[in-house]
Specification:
Distance between the termini: 51 Å
CATH architecture of the largest domain: Orthogonal Bundle
Low-confidence stretches: 1-5, 152-167
Number of helices: 11
Helix content: 55-70%
Largest sheet: 2 strands, antiparallel
Shape: elongated
Mean pLDDT: 77
């Protein structure tokens, strides 16, 4: 483990380029441009206002526009690109055949905690490339965060094609949907969001009560949630089974 300000080059690049340049300077430029466009309109309608009232309105509007601009940039630029440094690090430093979703799922390993501690995982480069993704997840689930959010390393999509069609398959699917509170029509994104909300709920419970019985209950519920999630994702919420039956 390493202790540095930026956990890796791509993290620093993302913070400096996306954070400071695009969000920071971009917000000022965009906000200033909006104010400049609105200035002639304001001049026409503010003629009858007192100087003090004009000043108050101008400062309030300026602050609101700048704040709104930063909010939109943060929501539509920063958040969607948040997995970018992890994805770049996995692909270009560790040479892991990682997807964007892998970066979102394992990003906590490379973000660094409040002490700056993170996991470079350079040992992954000693493994055959095709095994690195699985090893990444195996390590992740041994960490405190991963123990709560991950149960097992995700199989490749091809494994979904060989899931055995057992007689109780429909029952298992229905149970998984009930556990996560989703419908048979739920998309993968909806299933993932349901998992995150429930995991967050039980994480709060774990932090609020450190009794062994409570901790065991949270672990069991987390295992149940992740098992349900894995089943629904691997089978595309049962659609793979339906397609095989219709053949």
């Amino acid at each position: 483990m390493a202790r540095i300000k930026f956990t890796h080059f791509f993290d620093g690049f993302h913070t400096l380029f996306v954070g400071y340049l695009i969000i920071g300077f971009g917000g000022l430029i965009a906000g200033g441009t909006i104010l400049e466009v609105l200035e002639p309109v304001w001049d026409r309608i503010s003629g009858g206002f007192s100087e003090g009232l004009q000043t108050i309105i101008e400062w309030g509007a300026g602050f609101g526009i700048i704040a709104g601009t930063y909010y939109l940039l943060f929501k539509f630029v920063w958040i969607p690109l948040e997995p970018l440094p992890t994805w770049l690090y996995l692909r270009l430093t560790l040479y892991v055949p990682a997807t964007w979703r892998d970066a979102k799922t394992t990003g906590f390993l490379f973000d660094g905690d409040i002490t700056g501690t993170w996991y470079p995982l350079l040992e992954l480069k000693k493994l055959p490339r095709e095994l690195r993704r699985e090893a990444l997840y195996e390590f992740a689930k041994q960490t405190p965060v991963g123990a709560l959010t991950l149960q097992q390393s995700p199989s490749l999509e091809s494994l979904a094609e060989v899931i055995p069609l057992k007689p109780d398959a429909d029952q298992r699917l229905n149970h998984a949907r009930e556990v996560l509170g989703v419908t048979p029509e739920a998309t993968e994104e909806e299933i993932e969001n349901a998992l995150r909300e429930l995991i967050r709920k039980y994480q709060s419970l774990a932090f609020s009560n450190s009794q062994p019985e409570n901790q065991r209950f949270v672990r069991e519920k987390t295992d149940e949630l992740t098992a349900a999630y894995d089943l629904l994702v691997k089978t595309k919420n049962g659609r793979i089974m339906q397609e095989k039956r219709s053949r």
